[in-house]
Write a structure and sequence with these properties.
By secondary structure, this protein is mostly helical. The protein has three domains: 82 residues, no CATH class; 37 residues; 70 residues, no CATH class. The protein contains eleven helices and two strands. The chain has a two-stranded antiparallel sheet with strand order 1-2. The longest helix is centred in the middle third of the chain and has 17 residues. Bound molecules: zinc ion (ZN) (2 copies). One zinc ion (ZN) binds next to loops.
Length: 210
């Protein structure tokens, strides 16, 4: 087979490229050209983009904005540029939309449970205390509550609803409780705290006054 100069293998492996192959490989793929035209670009404008070095959708991320697209394609309608960029890199996030999607992500990630031992994401019907289907160990450790000293698996204490903190920060959480921080605030406070603040707090854990 290597006696034949034009095998598919040799073409796709790039061993032997003819000018026509180069055009096919370097240009904007046909499907993307079709979409660009549907968004309002003319065939000439698509061709211009190719001569500017664009090889497909990913390169629009380099262009970055509709304004820049108009700058490199003089005469391009701003609305068309906007539609093209929306398709290629997504709509410019609006402040409200961005914050609600962040909120959503936090909710989603709080729902997901990952095995402590093998990091496998647990199935949807996972209940606290279940064994991991991937490694057979208990996916979550049994934790002690810094607030009411009950213990159990999961993210929150079943007895008082306090959000568990990592074992290494248990003493800090107890200290915060002693200092009057609200139950709902403690895990969040520890999460947001800088290492320097934690170090200061550890100083107080180790030298309890009175
Ligand atoms: Zn596991
Ligand atoms: Zn509790």
């Amino acid at each position: 087979m290597f006696g034949q100069p034009e095998t598919d293998l040799m073409r796709t492996s790039g061993l032997r490229l003819r000018p026509n192959d180069l055009e096919t490989i370097m240009g904007i793929p046909v499907l993307e050209q079709t979409i660009l035209k549907a968004k309002g670009l003319s065939a000439e404008q698509v061709a211009t983009l190719e001569t500017l070095g664009m090889n497909g959708k990913a390169d629009f991320a380099t262009v970055g904005s509709a304004e820049t697209l108009v700058e490199i394609l003089p005469g391009l309608d701003a609305a068309v540029a906007g539609r093209v960029m929306e398709w290629a890199v997504g709509a410019a996030p609006k402040a409200a939309a961005a914050s609600s999607s962040t909120e959503r992500m936090i909710i989603d990630s709080a729902d997901a449970v990952y095995c402590l031992h093998c990091k496998t994401r647990q199935p949807k019907d996972y209940k606290a205390g279940d064994l991991c289907p991937s490694c057979g160990k208990q996916a979550e450790p049994v934790q002690s509550c810094y607030w009411c000293s009950h213990s159990g698996p999961g993210k929150f204490c079943r007895s008082c609803g306090a959000e568990f903190v990592s074992l290494s920060e248990f003493d800090l959480a107890v200290l915060l409780k002693r200092e009057g921080v609200a139950k709902e605030e403690i895990a969040k406070r520890l999460h947001d705290m800088s290492q320097a603040d934690k170090d200061t707090l550890w100083g107080r854990v180790k030298r309890p006054h009175l």
